[in-house]
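step=encode ok
step=design start
structure_in=
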């Protein structure tokens, strides 16, 4: 799970970790940990990481998502916002669902991606989560260029990592892992 993981200490009490792996198998303590699901606005499942998370969590997750109120027709979580549910059959205790921008059509993809990371961390903090694991939000189906995404992801997490014991990036693709690691070495003094 933590194959190739590299730790960056952000303060006396908080660590950012970059690792290869599968979010559906990630957990640190099973009671105050959360994985972040790169969902869509409808929030009822999909392909990519979202599909894998729903399969691993079981049908209870879809039912819990269904119960999240729509803010307008077909939208439970607008782009850049975040919602929380239990993790059900996942090893992690919670799932924070967020929606990153569709790179080609979003008016300001950088702001939307930053909001997705920021609001995920805000929701985590409000729910007393101590350990959070992110994928590379928007870097699959939603087409965000990896290096630009890494800059937003790492700089945003750095701002609020003090509120958590550990924030992890759990990256599925070797290429994205390499981009993230290079960017972390550039932006974080180890
Ligand atoms: N663990 C960690 N990362 C993963 C996993 C996993 N199990 N599976 C895939 N990835 P994507 P997006 C990586 O497409 O671009 C869905 O259909 C993947 O390699 O999952 O935000 C939703 O319903 C990529 O690097 O999310 C939305 O409609 C990263 O996760 C839409 O896709 C994100 O890729 C969201 O697109």
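sequence_out=
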């Amino acid at each position: 799970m933590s194959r190739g993981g590299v730790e960056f200490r952000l303060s006396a009490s908080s660590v950012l970790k970059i690792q290869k792996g599968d979010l559906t198998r990630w957990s640190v303590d099973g009671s105050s940990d959360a994985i972040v699901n790169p969902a869509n606005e409808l929030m009822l499942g999909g392909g990519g990481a979202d599909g894998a998370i729903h399969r691993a969590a079981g049908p209870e997750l879809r039912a819990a998502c269904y119960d999240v109120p729509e803010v307008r027709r077909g939208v439970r979580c607008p782009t850049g916002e975040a919602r929380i549910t239990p993790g059900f059959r996942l090893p992690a205790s919670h799932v924070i669902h967020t929606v990153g921008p569709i790179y080609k059509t979003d008016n300001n993809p950088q702001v939307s991606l930053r909001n997705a990371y920021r609001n995920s961390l805000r929701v985590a903090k409000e729910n007393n989560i101590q350990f959070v694991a992110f994928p590379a939000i928007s870097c699959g189906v939603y087409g965000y260029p990896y290096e630009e995404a890494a800059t937003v992801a790492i700089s945003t997490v750095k701002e609020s990592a003090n509120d958590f014991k550990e924030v992890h990036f759990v990256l599925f693709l070797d290429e994205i892992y390499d981009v993230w690691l290079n960017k972390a070495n550039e932006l974080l003094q180890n």
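step=design ok
step=annotate ok -> Residues 22-24, 38-40, 46-50, 52, 100, 135-142, 170, 172-173, 176 surround AR6 (CB under 6 Å).
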